[in-house]
């Protein structure tokens, strides 16, 4: 019985660990459990007729991985690719995909008290993909629910591209 208590408390702790990354001037966070690995940016192979936010695909140890540029997806201006640009390799619903971000800073552990709900924006802005806002000292992280952000329609598109 003791082991079960320890395991569940470890799950609770890891459920609140977020990988912090930047897009433009803002800092975001995604659950660390969704992250498979971090890689430097390499130009992917373009796929004809793919939406602009899908940069293309890369071959990751024999697996074809679609790459999504989050600056384009979030409409944050023209992306630049330099030595700080990082591709976060994610495992979402059994699918492997890459997410291009400007940089990755660290892993942050947030207690439930440090996570505030996302503000209601009405119909002007869809906030369904936000877990909330994480605050630690003077930092504020926009916490993204990556499963909801990569909607099922987009995941279906990713499958078609990876095939």
Automatic annotation (TrEMBL):
It is found in: Cytoplasm. Coiled coil: none annotated. The keyword Cytoplasm applies. InterPro entries: CheW, CheW-like_dom_sf, CheW-lke_dom. Its main location: cytoplasm. It comes from the Bacteria. Residues 15-155 form the CheW-like domain. The keyword Iron-sulfur does not apply. CDD domains: CheW (cd00732). Keywords: Cytoplasm. This is Chemotaxis protein CheW. It comes from Noviherbaspirillum album.
């Amino acid at each position: 019985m003791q082991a079960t208590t320890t395991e569940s408390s470890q799950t609770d702790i890891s459920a609140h660990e977020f990988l912090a990354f930047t897009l433009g001037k803002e800092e975001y966070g995604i659950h660390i459990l969704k992250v498979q690995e971090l890689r430097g940016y390499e130009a992917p192979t373009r796929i004809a007729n793919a939406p602009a936010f899908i940069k293309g695909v890369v071959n990751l140890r024999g697996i074809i991985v679609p790459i999504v540029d989050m600056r384009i997806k979030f409409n944050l201006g023209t992306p630049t690719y330099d030595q700080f640009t990082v591709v976060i390799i994610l495992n979402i619903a059994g699918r492997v995909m890459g997410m291009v971000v400007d940089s990755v800073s660290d892993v942050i552990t947030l207690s439930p008290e440090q996570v505030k709900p996302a503000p209601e924006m009405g119909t002007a802005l869809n906030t369904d993909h936000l877990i909330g806002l994480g605050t630690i000292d003077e930092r504020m992280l926009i916490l993204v629910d990556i499963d909801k952000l990569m909607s099922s329609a987009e995941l279906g598109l990713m499958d078609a591209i990876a095939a």
